[in-house]
Amino acid sequence: MLSQQYKDMCNTPSVIRALSVYATERGKEIGYENVFDYSLGNPSVPVPDEFNKAICDLIKEKTSAQLHGYSPNPGNPEVRQIVADSLKRRFGLDYKAEHIFMTSAAASAIAHALRCVTVPGDEVITFAPFFPEYNPYVNQTGAKLKVVPADTESFQINFDAFKEMLNPNVQAVLINTPNNPSGIAYSSETLTKLADILRAAQEEYGHEIFLISDEPYREIVFKGSDAPYVSKFYDNTISCYSFSKSLSIPGERIGYVAVNPKAKDAEMIVPMCVQISRGTGHNCPSSIIQMAMARCIDMTSDLSVYETNMNILYDELTALGFTVVRPGGTFYIFPKALEEDANAFCEKAKKYDLILVPSDSFGVKGYFRMAYCIDTEKVKRSLVALRKFVKEEYGG
């Protein structure tokens, strides 16, 4: 018998992926260069030359078994040490290789982290707006995802609602900063307050509450933004990182779990991840990609294009009368739609070949997301379509 759970999920596919498929099909009709596809967060800037060179050098230097064989379950030990040294150097925490578990990017890292600190029936809290895949990430562990309503004035944390939602069943809090979809980075003030509340709750409930920090956009931070490293604020933090955005290598699926060295039972979490991988199948990421990434550990692609694109869109959207909280990072912007029904708004936009993502699946109604990881030239051309859309549909 087929699993009813997964059969049911087939009826509710990812809205983002569905729009991306629509954009691709529309591109076959009119040329993809004429489709202003803001649906999918697929990095548009090239990988650093050093990454490609590292792969070529590795092919010359290493044996076939070293390049293409299994790595140890926690990851290549040399790579884990390089990651730990980089984190220690950059953020001042005493990471060692034993705190690092290599993963198939951030999704796998979150899958492991959640299973380390929850059992079926536990609760995990996140904050709207949030990445829609958090629903299956959490709920398929047997834990239950609880969503704190958004503070739409700033898209920082709605602390009053959070404190009301906290209870002894909460074992983990899952955050994403800089945030998909809002582009907002949680400030030092926000993270300090969050950490204080969690420490008090731990004391009251008599058990640890782990903070799981989803950090694929950690390197995409804009000028003047306060975007500190989460683990510096709270000991019981597990960082879930991906190189997909920083090095523009989403197809290579490489990231890691980094356990705060000060976390409760920190020395146990990576060995637990090894055991979790036996059941989830998220084990032994590509050996050659681990080694190539390690040679580029503190490099990034040219991420400045994303700030350029953000400024163009922010200025145009605000000029057209949209309410927008200015992003502090990522390659997303999250304006308020010009009508209450964001789905209707985005459907109308498709007539102008503007592919926008309605906000309902992000846990907020009446907004839309634009993933502006596209060429700046195309962003500029899309403004003509955006102006026409607003004028003809809303009299702007």
What does this protein structure show overall?
This protein has a 7-stranded mixed β-sheet, sandwiched between helices. The protein contains 14 helices and 12 strands. The model has no long low-confidence stretch (mean pLDDT 97). It folds into 2 domains: 138 residues, Aspartate Aminotransferase, domain 1; 246 residues, Aspartate Aminotransferase, domain 2. Helix 3 crosses helix 11 and helix 12 runs parallel beside helix 14. The chain has 396 residues and is of the alpha/beta class. Helix 7 links the parallel strand 3 and strand 4. It starts with a helix and ends with a helix. Helices cover 42% and strands 12% of the residues.
Q: What is the strand and helix layout of this fold?
A:
Layout: H1 4-9, H2 15-30, E1 36-37, H3 49-61, H4 64-68, H5 77-91, E2 100-103, H6 105-117, E3 123-127, H7 134-139, E4 144-148, H8 159-165, E5 170-176, H9 188-205, E6 210-214, E7 237-242, E8 255-259, H10 266-280, H11 287-294, H12 304-319, E9 332-333, H13 342-349, E10 354-355, E11 357-358, E12 368-371, H14 376-394
Parallel strand pairs: 1-10, 3-4, 3-5, 5-6, 6-7
Antiparallel strand pairs: 2-8, 7-8, 9-12, 11-12
Give the key terms.
396 residues, alpha/beta, Aspartate Aminotransferase, domain 1, Aspartate Aminotransferase, domain 2, 2 domains, seven-stranded mixed β-sheet, three-stranded antiparallel β-sheet, 14 helices, 42% helix, 12% strand
